[in-house]
Amino acid sequence: MIYLDNAATTKTAPEVLEEMLPYFTECYGNPSTIYAQGSAAKKAVNRARRIIADSIGAKMEEIYFTAGGSESDNWALKAAAEAAASKGRHIVTTKIEHHAILHTCEYLETRGFEITYLDVDKAGRVSPDSVRAVIRPDTILISIMFANNEIGTIEPIEEIGAIAKEKGILFHTDAVQAFGQIPVDVDSLHIDMLSASAHKLNGPKGIGFLYIRTGVKIRSFIHGGAQERSRRAGTENVPGIVGFGAAAQRAMTRMKKKAEKETALRNYLIERFEKEVPYCFLNGHRTERLPNNANLSFRFIEGESLLIMLDMKGICASSGSACTSGSLDPSHVLLAIGLKHEDAHGSLRITLSEENTMEEMDAVVEAVKEIVARLRAMSPLYEDFIKNRQTEK
Amino acid sequence: MYSEKVMDHFQNPRNMGEIVNPSGVGTVGNAKCGDIMRIFLDIDESGIIRDVKFKTFGCGAAVATSSMATELVKGKSIAEAMQVTNKAVTEALDGLPPVKVHCSLLAEEAIHAALWDYAEKNQIVIEGLSKPKEDIHEEGEEEEY
C-alpha cells in the first residue's frame, strides 16, 4: 500500500505508541487523585503540556487539552464570541476554512453574530489588506487558518496577527495542518488562540489542544470538574495527552529534515505531473505551501472514479469532488480559488509523509497517468473538448 | 461502499465508447454536480436497439449505472427500453448507496434523451416519452454559484 493521505490522518509512530501504553494498564490513575499512581499520571500530563507549550513558544498554563481540532475550533469561536458579545458581534474569517470553523460560524450567525467570509486569491492566500479593510468597531474576533488542509497554502499569519494586535481584536488560527509541519510561534505571530490535533503529526486520534493566551477572556467549554483550569472539565485523556506530547517532541526534532525530504518528493511529483499529463494544473501556492501537499486538477475526469481506481492499485489519496465530500457540491476551497465545478470535481490531493519514497512517487505518477487516460476515454467532457478543438483548427 | 456488481461494472464498463452517426444521442446531467452521461443509440428499421454506447463523466456509481443501463436496453425494442427505469438499473446492480441513487436517475434520463433525439430525427412519437430537461453543462451555468 502507498499511503498518500497524511492530511487526513497519519500513522501513530511506534515510539509514540510505546510511550502511551503504560498509561492504559500500569499508570492508569486519575490525575486528580491524591495517591502516587494518580500524581504520576498528572506529572505525565504536565510533561506533555510543557513539551507542547515549548513547541509553540507558549506558557504551560496556556495549553488546554481537548478531544481534537474540531473541538478546539468550536470552543475558540463559540466561547470567545459569547464572552465578547457585549463589545460587538462581528467576526472575520475566510471562505477556505475547515468546516469545523465554517459550520461553527454558521451556527453563530443563527445566534445573532455577523460573519465576514473573506475571499482568497487564486493561490488560496488571504490578503492582509482585505482583513484590515473589513474590520469594524464591533469586530470581536478574527479566525484565519494557518495552512489550508486541501491545497496546502500557508496564510500570511504574521501580518494578519499584527493587524489584529494593532486593532485590539482577538486572533484565532486553526493550525491543525501546520502544527508539527512548519514552525509556529504564538508570540512573534501575535496569535491569541490556536487549535491543533495530535493525529496529524503521528500522534493518536481523539486528542487536541487549544492554546489560549493568558488574559484572553473566554468561557469554559465543558462545565464540571477542575481539569484544565476548570475551562474544559472531564478526566484527562492521559494516554492521548502523553501520546500528543511524544508526537510533538518527535515532530519538533525532525521538522527540518522531514520538511526537506517531503518538499523534494512533492516537487518531483508536481513536476512530473505537469510535464507528463496534459490538461492538469496545480492548485494552491507554488512555494507558500505545506511541504507534504500536492493538489492537482486533472481536467475532464471525476475525482471519486480516480480515487477508486487508485485504491485498486493500493494507493490511498483524496479528492475535492462532490462524491467524496458526501454532498452535491465540490470542495468549497477549490471553488473559492476560482476553479470551475468540473475542475474541482477532478482534483486529487496527495499528502506525503517522510516514509514515502521516490519509487512510490514514480508508481503514483504512472498509475495516475494510466487512470486519467482511461477515464478521459470515457468522458463526454473530453470528447467535446477534443471535437471543439478540431473544429477550431 | 459499493456492491460487487457496481465495482464490476465500474472496472469493466460494458458498451463504453461512441457510435458514429448514431440513430439518437442524448446527454444529461451537469458538471456542477459532477455527473454527465451521454448515450448513443443505433436503432434498426424495425425499431430494435441494435447497438448502444455510453460516455460518462462521474463517480463510480455513475459509470456503473451507465454501463448497466446500456446492457438493459441493448437488443430491446423502443417500448421495452422505455421500461428500463432507474429502479430497474439500481436493482440490477444489487443496490446503490442512498447518496448515489440520483446516478441511476441520470441513466434513465440519458436513455430517454437519446430516444427523444431519435424520435425527433425521425419525426415519430414514442409513447410515454417527454422532452428531456435541458442539458445544462454549457458555459455560463457555473457563474451563478
Structure in a nutshell:
The complex is a heterodimer of chains A (393) and B (145). Chain A is an alpha/beta fold and 393 residues long.
Task: Report mean pLDDT of chain B, rounded to a whole number.
Answer: 89
What characteristic shape of chain B results from the CA principal axes?
globular
Uncertain residue segments of chain A: none
Number of helices of chain B: 5
Shape of chain A: globular
Structural class of chain A: alpha/beta
Number of contiguous helices of chain A: 14
Description:
The complex is a heterodimer of chains A (393) and B (145). Chain A contains 14 helices and twelve strands. By secondary structure, chain A is α/β, with parallel strands linked by helices. Chain A folds into two domains: 13-251, Aspartate Aminotransferase, domain 2 (3-Layer(aba) Sandwich); 254-392, Alpha-Beta Complex (Aspartate Aminotransferase, domain 1), CATH 3.90.1150.10. In chain A, helix 1 packs antiparallel against helix 8, helix 3 (36-56) packs parallel to helix 8 and helix 4 (69-84) packs parallel to helix 5. Chain B is built from five helices and three strands; from the N terminus they run H-E-E-E-H-H-H-H. Chain B has helices at 4-11, 60-73, 78-82, 86-92, 101-122; strands spanning 24-30, 35-43, 49-57. A three-stranded antiparallel beta sheet of chain B has the order 1-2-3. In chain B, 49% of the residues are buried. Chain B has a single domain (4-124), classed as Alpha-Beta Complex (Sufe protein. Chain: A), CATH 3.90.1010.10. Chain B is of the alpha+beta class. In chain B, a hairpin with a 4-residue loop joins strand 1 and strand 2. The interface between A and B is medium-sized, with 26 and 28 residues.
